[in-house]
Amino acid sequence: MEFTRNPRSNLTKATLKLMQRLILLLVTLLGLAVLNVSGGQAGPAPAAGDHAVIQRRRLVLVRPPEIVKRFPHKKQAVVNYPVVSGLNPAVLRRVRTLFDFKNIFDYSLREYREDAWLSEFDYVVNHNANHLLDITFSQSGSGAYPDQHSKHFLIDLRSGKLLKAADVFVAEKMPELIAKVDLKLRAELKGILEELRTSNSDAEDLKMASEAQEPLSYTSEDLDSFSVNKKGITFLYDAGYPHAIQAFAPNGRYFFTYAELKPFIKPDGPLGQFIQ
Question: Which terminus in the chain has less CB density within 10 A, N or C?
């Protein structure tokens, strides 16, 4: 039996070959379009991990009936919490571990819910760029009296680790740096007493404020607590005053520009980028 070739079949095969060639040409042209025209190489990819992606999540903790029965005005507590993403997997795991509730104020969400103290849990992002994430958590609540606490984190987004003074400051210069911050602490303490005197405060208040200041000084142990932004560094100091005299406590925030701190900052450290 003799078979006759179908001319439409040949036309279809020819059309398919042409389409394949056109697709290949299009792919080639698209590849050329992303090349660096000056050197013929692909342009550099954006820096990975320069900043974290942070989404704000709001939770309302509803307390169990046995707690509400004892504290009817404390049925709920509000928790605002950062959900972090946008980092390489290893760094992201470290950051999320640091931000586990138990690592912030030693309380889990379950413990917050089953205790009547908490009113609000919140956070503020101070800086999220330059491979640095600077964030402050706060919690407020009341027991015998209202109270508030804060916890600060400065994280290197290249490693996911907390930054310490030894990571960013020149070791030989640290005693001089401590003295510079201590001068600002002294000036603030002096200002507190002067304000009490000029406002004709009670003599007992002035005495308590003066006595509370006597043991205070800025030391090497305090140097690990500092916050950064694009303008400079703020050294954080907690006087540790009890609630009864917290009104006399120093604010404990001492700011220096990067220009002022250039001799103290390691050029090859995480903050060296700000003094170039």
Answer: N
| Distance from chain centroid for Cα 39 | 39
**For 190-197, what is the mean pLDDT?**
96
- Region of residue 70 (left: phi > 0; alpha: psi -120 to 50; beta: else): alpha
Distance CA 178, CA 254 (A): 11
In terms of Cα–Cα distance, which of 117, 113, 156, 114 is closest to 134?
A: 156
The alpha-carbon radius of gyration of the chain (Å, integer) is 30
Q: For residue 19, name the pLDDT band (cuts at 50, 70, 90).
A: low
CA–CA–CA angle 165, 137, 236 (5° rounding): 35
- In sequence order, the β-bridge partners of residue 125 are 135
Domains and CATH numbers, the chain: 53-162 (3.30.565.40), 167-274 (no CATH)
